[in-house]
Amino acid sequence: MNRPTRRTRGDISRAPDHVLITGSTSGLGRALAERYAAPERTLSLAGRDETRLAAVASVCRDRGAKVDVQKVDVTDAEAMERWVVERDQALPIDILIANAGIGGSAVVPSSSGESGPLARQILGINTMGVINTVTPVLPRMTERGAGHIVMVGSIQSAIGLPQSPVYCASKAAVQIYADALRRLLADRGVRVTSVLPGFVDTPMSRSLDMPRPLVWSAERAADRVMADVAKGARQSVFPWPIRLLVGLQRYAPVMVVDAVLRQSTRLGWANKDDAG
């Protein structure tokens, strides 16, 4: 395989040489790492579990990729900046995927809402973790007029679910940040895609004691994200029926939406009265 030619300003037609992914040890992040693994491609993979990092790195190397792994917590801004800059200096990052996040049963509060520590943990990982991943590479990508930033949020960013108020807020912040950054960088040759998935079959989502309508496998979701990124999509939103339902709530009276979503807690949607 011939090494792809270095892309020029705003060009998305060539395969990426270097892809950086956080949260790469499980679920969508791991599926993306394995899908992007290819001969002559460099993958920089981050996670907090060294054993699982080694496992995904092994799979990716077997597929011909050059792999660098880093055990790092996305909430550690200084550590993230060191690692991202180091990897970009080693080889300019073509696609940066800020995927690390917390979800599932870990973010479901009691009926009185999230505790302060839980709320700060969710926002620290899901929102500040994304910002800590993205900001170190922004001046470098804009200077060379090339690069693609991908932020993984959630379709729940468009609706406030009573089962996860702070989680929804954390993902809404990511979506707004991605939208604003995309508009800011549009003339600088840097592309931004926000990923807004519905339910993806991951260990986190399987921990939920609630229905997961139209759940996608991590592999199917990864294929969709990669296809959308390859064509320079502004957003990658799936599946479409969930997108449609979430979108319709904007046109319904607020009191109706409130009533429907309150009822959902009575249908077994993980109301943890005894947990913080």
Characteristics:
about 280 residues; alpha/beta; Rossmann fold; seven-stranded parallel β-sheet; two-stranded parallel ribbon; 10 helices; globular; disordered N terminus
Describe this structure in words.
A seven-stranded parallel β-sheet has the order 3-2-1-4-5-6-9, sandwiched between helices. A two-stranded parallel ribbon has the order 7-8. It has helices at residues 27-36, 50-62, 77-90, 116-134, 138-144, 165-185, 203-206, 218-230, 240-248, 254-264; strands spanning 18-21, 42-47, 66-71, 95-98, 148-152, 191-197, 200-201, 216-217, 235-238. Helix content is 44%, strand content 14%. The chain has a single domain, classed as Rossmann fold (3-Layer(aba) Sandwich), CATH 3.40.50.720. Strand 5 (148-152), helix 6 (165-185) and strand 6 (191-197) form a beta-alpha-beta unit. The chain has ten helices and nine strands. The relative contact order is 0.14. The N and C termini lie far apart (53 Å). The model is unreliable at 1-10 and 267-276 (pLDDT under 50). It is α/β, with parallel strands linked by helices.
What does this entry show, briefly?
With 276 residues, this protein is of the alpha/beta class. It has ten helices and nine strands.
Number of helices: 10
The level of helicity is: 40-55%
Radius of gyration: 19 Å
Which CATH architecture is right?
3-Layer(aba) Sandwich
Q: Between the first and last Cα atoms, what is the distance in angstroms?
A: 53 Å
Number of domains: 1
- The secondary-structure class comes to alpha/beta
Shape: globular
Tell me the series of helices and strands, N- to C-terminal.
EHEHEHEHHEHEEHEHEHH
Spatial order of the strands forming the largest sheet: 3-2-1-4-5-6-9
In CATH, the homologous superfamily goes by the name: NAD(P)-binding Rossmann-like Domain
